Structures are given as structure tokens and as C-alpha cells.
């Protein structure tokens, strides 16, 4: 991996307390944009049709079909604007600045309607405690451009490592994609075997975990003390949680049921990219071995 990725600017500090309010607001904005993609695209296995993707400037829905046209919504975290671009050469921009979620919601859909795109979404946030309808949410109203730019810089670095990790696997693998519900960047490998049904699971969970998976991802802070990387197997094989994994500081979190390594431990390493890759590889290898995956047929020859 290009060692320029290990420059400090590529792995900036981003303590959760320094941007907690902006984080919460941006999370809701991303859910609004993500739900537009969800509403207009056909279901792809494991809900891959709903995600956003890291770009050289932020996050994007990628191309969304709409009648005989297509459009894309992009968060540009360099110019701090939401960009709407259509296949018939219309470009509209909505500034990203401190404003209530309700206002962002109204202006986003007004921008769409102004280009002839008429879409409605279920206006309730998901995967958060105490959700507030988007059109009524005036509580979340913060936007700190510097913190968002740091977050985007981290996503760029993590995406590059996850892409390299993904390339070492020739079995079924997800794209490296951003789930706006849980607000995390993730990549998932599959054994090719169906998973036992989860008792009491809802339809979303049943679809997401219909097959055996090994997944790694990055949270900027939700649910834990600060930004961290995670890795889990579903279903979890016996002996997985007792495995010795890399790098130093990585550990199995009993409450979460996942291996965790804090982002600050990764960024403090002499090579953050290699430390993160070691976390991805060592946790996958522990799980694949415990679950008796057919690694000879799933992994690229010569991969670590």
C-alpha cells in the first residue's frame, strides 16, 4: 500500500465529543438522502441497494433511475454542499451549514421537485434511540465544516484499506459501502453457505444475515466511547471470541459481540494502514478457521 496513506493528515484526530452535535445532524441528513435511494431502487441482496459510497469529495448515492432519466445526490464535504445532478444536465446545490434537520428535509425535497423529481420517503429515522420525524426535528441543527472534513478524510483512508482487503477475496463480497442507518463504513465477506434463520428476526435482519458473513467496519462513534473499527462473524462460530488478533489493543467486546480496536490506537501506529489491514485479516482468519470456511476456494492465491 502507498505509504503516503500513513501521513498524519490521512488519519486526523476526531474525538467524538468534539463534533457530537454535528455527527447527530449529519447522521439524520444522510438518512434522508439514503432513504431517497431506498425508495427508488430495487432490492439487492442484503440491502446493498440502499448504501452510500465514498468519493474523492464526500459521499454519493451513485446513479438513481427515475423514469427515462437518472440522477445522483452527492454530499460534497470539500465545498460543503449537497449536489443534485441529473442525466439531462441539471445541477442544483444545497449548502451544508448549521440548520435544523426539518429545514434540510424541506429544502432537499424542494430541490428535487424543482427538477421534476417527485419522491416521498417514510420520514422516521432508523437505528437510533428516541427518533424524531425528519420534518419535525429542530433539535439536531449543527454543522461544523472542519469536523466533517476530518470525518471525510478518515473515510477516504479507511475506504482505501477496505478496498485492498476486499481485493484479497474471490468469493462473494459486498462493495465497500456506507450504511446510513448505523452510520458506518463496512465491507462483508460471505462463505457461500446459508445461515440458520434468526429466531424472532425482522424482515430487514433476515435479509441482511441470510448467509454466513464475516464483516469489518468503521464507526465514527455511535454506541461506543469513540471512533472504532469492528469485526464480527454471523453466526459466530465457537472459539471465535477467544482468538488472538492484531494489532495491540484489539479485543473482543462481550456487550457488542464483536472484536473492536479504537481508531486512536490505529492512528497512533507507525503505519495506520497496515495496522488496520492486520485487524481486518486477523479477525477474518480467526473466524473463517473457526467456522471451517473453504478458504482455498474463497481467497486469492498468495493473499495474507
Note the run of SSEs as H and E.
HEEEEEEHHEEHEEEEHHH
Distance between the termini: 14 Å
Structural class: alpha+beta
- Taking pLDDT < 50 over at least 5 consecutive residues as the criterion, the unreliable ranges are none
Residue share in β-strands: 15-25%
How confident overall, as mean pLDDT? Answer: 95
Rg is 19 Å
What characteristic shape results from the CA principal axes?
globular
Helix content: 25-40%
Helix segment tally? 7
Main pleated-sheet profile: 6 strands, antiparallel
Could you give the count of β-strands? 12
What does this structure look like?
Helix 1 (20-40) runs parallel beside helix 2 (101-114) and helix 3 crosses helix 6. The chain has 304 residues and is α+β, with helices and mostly antiparallel strands. Strand 7 (177-179) and strand 8 (184-194) form a beta hairpin. It has helices spanning 20-40, 101-114, 145-167, 203-208, 263-267, 272-290, 295-298; strands at 53-54, 58-60, 64-66, 69-76, 81-86, 91-95, 177-179, 184-194, 211-219, 228-234, 251-253, 258-262. The chain is globular, with a radius of gyration of 19 Å. It contains seven helices and twelve strands. 30% of the residues lie in helices and 21% in strands. The mean pLDDT is 95. Strands 1, 2, 3, 4, 5 and 6 form a six-stranded antiparallel β-sheet that branches. The two termini are 14 Å apart.
Indicate the topology:
Layout (H helix, E strand, L loop, with lengths): L19 H21 L12 E2 L3 E3 L3 E3 L2 E8 L4 E6 L4 E5 L5 H14 L30 H23 L9 E3 L4 E11 L8 H6 L2 E9 L8 E7 L16 E3 L4 E5 H5 L4 H19 L4 H4 L6
